[in-house]
Every structure is written in structure tokens, then in C-alpha cells.
Here is the input.
Amino acid sequence: MKQRIYITGIGIISAAGNNVAEVLSSLVNRRSGIDSIRFLKTELSAKYPAGEVKLSNAELAAMLNLPAESHSRTFLLGLAAAREALGGKPTANSARTGLISATTVGGMDLTEEYFAALHNASHAARAADIRVLFSHDCGAATEKIARTLGLHGMISTVSTACSSSANAMQYAASLIRNGYADRMLAGGSDALSRFTINGFSTLKILDEAQCNPFDDNRGGLNLGEGAAYLLLESEESASAHPEDILSELSGCGNACDAFHQTAMSDNGEGPYLSMKYALADAGISIDDVDYINLHGTGTDNNDVSEGRAIERLGAKTIPPYSTTKSYTGHTLGAAGAIEAVISILSIRERMIFPNLNFTTRMKELSCDPVREVVRNVDLTHVMSNSFGFGGNNSSLILSKASAPKNKSAETTR
Here is the structure.
């Protein structure tokens, strides 16, 4: 029998709020965090709004009580969310507690600052300063978060574009199920950078207004930044403190259709397969799903593909669905974990959060996303989708948790 994976802690920072409580307040009050860019200096800042965290690097470092030194924004955001997810839980068994962290840009913000400074630096200064580039790769933030938190178990970094942190959660669950860990902190962190804004602008998929995903008049996506982590535990580990259990990660699915470098197929083959595999892993059907948190970027291609993939699952009635990227922006490698946390909040608070800015049904689809906050609804199974460039598609099933079995107690009896 497949070992059950429990989620006992969550942490988040995004444009919608600096912690779980603030993000929940924004969701309930339909308050989007997407606005003009303040901290990232780029020629495109005035053109494209984004989901920027409302704290400078200096303010983040002060909030985290970190020494005054050069920290990547990805690390700062990640540490904020990771600390909240741990919630002061002891790490005495740190050798059996690991970290799987996801990102797409890593320390790109430091790299961009370094190359800008090269123009005004002497040759000697360049030779000395180039060493800082060694800490700009995607894995550097992961290692630094683990060291700061005192985690000594399995440490690894996942970078599969926009499905990265959903895949980090799948990998962490696999490690627990195969006996390599008792607890794993899994999620991701990504910061805005010139690289991503310029790249997505070149693809012509950025919206110059606040995004309106799954709307027939959608104009593209808004980029965002942030971090989220979830503390995953084995059944035996979670049984020691059942009062902390928030949810169960009951199903995971991943599929790569390799259709195109940046686009999904019109019929949504990759998304369809990832959802199908996640449902099978959870042992449920699409008719058992009470809500779908969409990938829902707001691009022409994504929304048609994802919508058609959902319809292909053959539900008697398509479950309520919405995308929360209209609150946070598209946070790239952090999106899967951020939306997993929001999905858990839906289960815990008995709420479905709406698709902001929606007005007109897409002509390709047969139903609309949720438009208003839905309250007092019992959610047993929530599906969360994260789809990345290159066709790397991932789906998670997050479920209302029943009490774990206490194996040590059973042995005593």
C-alpha cells in the first residue's frame, strides 16, 4: 500500500502578502497584488505591471535578521517562506529532514547587478568580484536556505520551468515513500529579473494591464515573484503531532508531451496526461474533485489547451475552477508551491477563490471559471496544475486529511 504523505506546515510570500495570513486576507477580499514595478530597474518596468513583493532586499534581510551582505532576492524570499512553513518545529532529526527547492532564475538578480557594475570597474576589481558569480546558480539559494535552517537531510534543486516547485513536491514525496526521509521541506522561490521580463516580452505574451485569464479577451500574463514551501511528512512522523496536519498530498502526476519549446498542443495532451496520472495516483476520478486551481496564465495558448484538457477528462459536471495568478502574477518556478498553499487554504477555510478580472467566456470552452468568493463549501479533493515550457506538465491532488495511524501505538497494543 502506498505510504500517505501529510502536509504539516505551509509558508508563503508573494505580491498578495508576506505570509499565510496576509495572502489569505487578499484572497478573501479579492485584492490583487499586481501593480507597477517598484524595485526592479528595467526599461520595461513602466510598460508591464507585475506581482512584485512589496519589500526591498534590505527590508527582507532586516525582517529575517540577516547580516548586511549580498543576498540574492531568490534566497531572501525563499527563506521567509521556508521559515514560516517550519513554524518553529524542532529540527533535532535534521539528518532525516531535507529540502527540495525549485527556481528558474536563481541568483540572476545578482548576476545582472554584477555585469552592470563591470562597466565602471577596474581590471583588478573585475578579477576579484567575479567570484560572486559562483553563488548565482540555481542551487546556491537552496544550499543557503538549508544551511540557515540547519537541515542536513537530502538537499536538491529542481528547475523545470513553471512546473518546478510542483515537481519539487513530487520528488520530496517520493523520497519519503522510499524511506530516504521522514520530513521534507518542498517548494520553490523565484525573483523578478530583467532576464525574465525581457524574455517574456520577446515572446509577446505579457499583458500591459492586469491579467484576465480564461477570458475571451485575455491579453497575456503578468509576471510575479515569491516563494512557498510545504512541510511534507510520513504517516509515522505526522502521527506524533496530528494537530498540525493541514492536508494530504494524495496524488501526483507528471507528463511531458514535448510538443513545442514554449507552447502546448491545442488539445492539451500534456496537461490531460498529467491530470489523468495524478487522479490515478490518488485513486479517484475527476468526478471526485471539488475544485481545480488552474495553471491559468492568461495566454491564448495556455488557457485553450488547459481548458480542453479538463474537458477531455470526461467529468459528469466539470468541477469549479479558477486561477489565482490574477492575485500573484505568474511566479514561474514558485508557482506550483504557491498555488498548492492556496489550495490547502481553500480546503481549510472552506472557500474557493475567484478568477479576478473575468468578464467573457472563452468561445472554445463550455463553462466559466469561478467569479466570486465561494464560502462554506466542503472540499475533499483539490487539483492544482502547473505547466512548464518544453511540455513539462505537473498536477497535484491535495486532499482533506484523515488522522494518520500511530504505528508505535499499534505495536504497544
